C-alpha cells in the first residue's frame, strides 16, 4: 500500500474511534504534454476498504472530471487522464462514498450494491447491513451506466438469508461483520524459529518489568479521595449526562465510548508522572459514563491509552486493565484494540506484536486459550480482513512459544 495514512471513510466524522476506516487516497503524476496522466497507486486498497470494485471510484473520477480512465486490475493500476491534484480526487472520493457507499438512511458504509430488474428497467440499490434499509442511488449519474454494464460480483459470506426473489447481483459493504474464519494455512502461516528464540529470551526480561500486584482500588475510588485526586483531570467534564442507551455503540460519534476515548486522549499527557492517580481518574470517568464493565470500553482504552511506546506503557497501565478485563469477551476486546493499534495507527509496530502479547500475558490480561483461538482465526470484527491477517501472522512466534511451553509442562 502506498503510504498516506489512514482516515475515516466518512471524513466529516473526526472521531478517532470511528470503526470504518480506509487508506488516504494517494496520486502520482506520470508523463507530460498530451500524455500526462494521474496514477492512483493505492486505489485497490481504498476500494477494498469500501468493498467496492476499484474500477467504480476510478470511473466516477472520470465522469466528474470529464476525463478518460483506464484500469489494469491484474497489476492494480488505475489511471485518470490529465494532471489532477490529490486533494481534488479525495473530495471526489467523498462524493462517490456519499452517492454509492453510505446508506442514505443511517449513513453507515456497511452496504451492498444490488441491481434490481423490473421488466426492462434496472435500478441500483444500496442494501444496508447495519439498519436493514434499502435506498436507491441517483440513476441519472453517468456511473450507473458503467455499474449496470459491469455489475458487482456476489461475495459468498457463509450462512446468510437468501434473497426475496429479486434478480440481484451484490458486493459486500464496508462493515466489519465476521465473514468466517480463515485457517493458518490460508493465512500463509510459516514458522519462524529465530523469532521464537528471541521471544523466549525476552520473556525473562518481561517477567521483571511486568509483574504487578492486582490492587484493591476501593480506597482510591471513594468519593472524597477521588474528588481530591482527580480534580485537575476532571475539570469541566464533571457531571456529563448521557441521553439514550448507556450501552451505546463505538460507531456513534456521541456514544459514551467515544466520549471516554476523547477524554483519555485529552488528559493522557497531563498526569505529570502520577500514573496511578490518572488511572483512577480514567476508571471513574468510565463509571460516570456507565460503561466501566463493558467490553467495548477495553477496546477504546487500548486505542486511547497506548502509543508507539506500548511496550513501556503496558506495565504502567496494567492495573487499569486488570480492573476492567474480567471475561473472555473483555480479553478479545483487548486483542481487538491491539489489532487497531498496530494494524491501523502504528503499522511499524507489527514486528513487536509477539512482545506486546507477551507483555499482556505476563500481567495475566490474556489467557492461553483465548490468545490461541484468536491467533488461528482471522476476523473482520475490529479491522479489515487483510489487516487481521497481518497482525496474526506477526503473532506466530508468540503462539509457537505458548504451544512449546504447554508441551514442556505436559512432559
TrEMBL record:
GO terms for biological process: formation of cytoplasmic translation initiation complex. Residues 250-411 form the W2 domain. Residues 155-195 are annotated as: Disordered. One of its GO terms (molecular function) is eukaryotic initiation factor eIF2 binding. InterPro entries: ARM-type_fold, IF2/IF5, Transl_init_fac_IF2/IF5_dom, Transl_init_fac_IF2/IF5_N, Transl_init_fac_IF2/IF5_Zn-bd, W2_domain. One of its GO terms (cellular component) is cytosol. It comes from the Eukaryota. Signal peptide: none annotated. Keywords: GTP-binding, Initiation factor, Nucleotide-binding, Protein biosynthesis. PANTHER family: EUKARYOTIC TRANSLATION INITIATION FACTOR (PTHR23001), EUKARYOTIC TRANSLATION INITIATION FACTOR 5 (PTHR23001:SF7). Belongs to the eIF-2-beta/eIF-5 family. This is Domain found in IF2B/IF5-domain-containing protein. It comes from Rhodocollybia butyracea.
Amino acid at each position: 500500500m502506498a503510504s498516506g495514512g489512514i482516515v475515516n471513510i466518512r471524513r466529516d466524522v473526526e472521531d478517532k474511534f470511528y470503526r470504518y476506516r480506509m487508506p488516504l487516497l494517494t496520486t502520482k503524476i506520470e508523463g507530460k504534454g498530451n500524455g500526462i496522466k494521474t496514477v492512483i497507486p493505492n486505489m485497490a486498497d481504498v476500494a477494498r476498504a469500501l468493498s467496492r470494485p476499484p474500477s467504480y471510484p476510478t470511473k466516477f473520477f472520470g465522469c466528474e472530471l470529464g476525463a478518460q480512465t483506464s484500469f489494469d486490475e491484474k497489476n492494480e493500476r488505475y489511471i485518470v487522464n490529465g494532471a489532477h491534484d490529490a486533494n481534488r480526487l479525495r473530495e471526489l472520493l467523498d462524493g462517490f462514498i456519499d452517492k454509492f457507499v453510505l446508506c442514505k438512511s443511517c449513513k453507515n458504509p456497511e452496504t451492498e450494491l444490488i441491481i434490481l430488474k423490473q421488466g426492462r428497467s434496472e435500478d441500483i440499490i444500496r442494501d444496508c447491513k447495519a439498519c436493514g434499509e434499502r435506498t436507491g442511488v441517483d440513476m441519472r449519474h453517468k456511473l450507473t451506466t458503467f455499474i449496470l454494464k459491469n455489475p458487482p460480483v456476489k461475495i459468498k459470506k457463509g450462512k446468510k438469508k437468501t434473497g426475496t426473489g429479486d434478480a440481484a447481483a451484490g458486493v459486500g459493504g464496508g462493515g466489519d461483520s465476521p465473514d468466517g474464519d480463515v485457517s493458518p494455512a490460508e493465512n500463509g502461516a510459516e514458522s519462524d524459529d529465530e523469532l521464537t528464540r528471541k521471544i523466549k529470551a525476552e520473556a525473562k526480561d518481561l517477567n521483571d518489568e511486568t509483574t504487578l500486584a492486582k490492587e484493591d482500588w476501593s480506597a482510591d475510588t471513594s468519593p472524597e479521595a477521588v474528588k481530591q485526586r482527580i480534580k485537575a483531570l476532571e475539570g469541566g467534564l464533571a457531571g456529563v449526562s448521557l441521553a439514550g442507551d448507556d450501552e451505546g455503540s463505538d460507531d456513534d460519534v456521541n456514544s459514551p465510548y467515544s466520549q471516554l476515548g476523547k477524554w483519555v486522549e485529552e488528559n493522557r499527557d497531563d498526569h505529570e508522572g502520577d500514573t496511578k492517580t490518572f488511572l483512577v481518574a480514567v476508571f471513574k470517568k468510565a463509571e460516570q459514563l456507565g460503561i466501566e464493565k463493558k467490553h467495548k470500553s477495553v477496546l477504546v482504552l487500548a486505542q486511547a491509552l497506548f502509543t508507539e511506546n506500548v511496550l513501556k506503557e503496558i506495565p504502567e497501565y496494567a492495573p487499569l486493565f486488570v480492573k476492567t478485563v474480567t471475561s473472555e469477551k473483555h480479553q478479545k476486546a483487548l486483542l481487538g484494540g491491539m489489532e487497531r493499534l498496530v494494524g491501523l495507527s502504528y503499522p511499524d509496530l507489527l514486528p513487536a506484536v509477539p512482545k506486546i502479547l507477551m507483555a499482556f500475558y505476563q500481567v495475566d490480561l490474556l489467557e492461553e486459550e483465548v490468545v490461541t483461538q484468536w491467533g488461528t482465526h482471522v476476523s473482520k470484527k475490529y479491522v479489515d480482513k487483510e489487516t487481521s491477517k497481518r497482525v496474526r501472522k506477526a503473532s506466530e512466534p508468540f503462539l509457537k512459544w505458548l504451544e512449546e511451553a504447554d508441551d514442556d509442562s505436559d512432559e
